[in-house]
Design a protein that fits this description.
The chain is mainly beta. It has a domain of 121 residues: Immunoglobulin-like. The protein has one helix and nine strands. The chain has a four-stranded antiparallel sheet, with no helix packed on it. Strands 1-2-7 form a three-stranded antiparallel sheet, with no helix packed on it. Strands 3-6 form a two-stranded antiparallel sheet. The chain is elongated, with a radius of gyration of 30 Å. About 16% of the residues have low confidence.
Length: 190
């Protein structure tokens, strides 16, 4: 009985597929005596739009925040060997200002640091970061400033003139009036 029921169910579901395959194929011929319009895309074709670059002009009157990295300092703290690799600890203190015309929640805005070298070969690698505020509730009103501090431990080649590059709102998650004031850099001194 089970076998019989399975056969009936299979037939019910497969019958439309089998019938569709028996549909006759029609051929169309092109009438070369008439002028024809070639349609380049059907009306339901999606047009791929290019992303607006972060440097595009934004109306100065737009209601947007503008989180500016005003300044930062980097202070060497100590060195230690970890798993055969010499790592250096330093503190990064920064000052931010909302130069926009709208308040912004700082809960999801982060600071991201990178260590960059110019010699012997130009190279940049990530080197610590922190959220501006780990708990909810910090709002940066227009004109408001915020001071922060975080500690970082990473390998640094002291002999190749390391530079610490600090970004706020990396990688531009918050739409701002000016995305160009989110980065500063300083040499790392020991």
């Amino acid at each position: 009985m089970k076998h019989f029921l399975c056969t009936i169910v299979a037939f019910i579901f497969l019958a439309p597929v089998l019938l569709a395959q028996r549909t006759p194929v029609t051929k169309k011929t092109i009438d070369t005596t008439k002028a024809q319009t070639i349609k380049l895309s059907p009306p339901n074709t999606a047009v791929r739009r290019t992303a607006t670059p972060a440097t595009s002009a934004i109306d100065a009157n737009a209601l947007l925040p503008d989180i500016k990295l005003v300044s930062f300092t980097i202070k060497y703290v100590s060195s230690q060997e970890m798993n055969g690799e010499l790592r250096h600890s330093y503190e990064i203190a920064y000052l931010l200002k909302n130069e926009g015309n709208v308040a912004v929640s700082a809960d999801s805005i982060g600071m991201q640091g990178f260590i960059s070298y110019q010699t012997p070969v130009a190279a940049t690698s990530p080197a610590c970061g922190a959220l501006i505020n780990q708990t909810s509730g910090l709002i940066l009103a227009p004109g408001a400033t915020h001071k922060g501090l975080y500690r970082c431990t990473s390998p640094v080649d002291k002999l190749n003139n390391p530079v610490y590059i600090l970004y706020v709102d990396y990688p531009n998650l918050v739409r701002e009036l000016n995305e160009q004031n989110n980065k500063l850099q300083l040499p790392i001194t020991f």
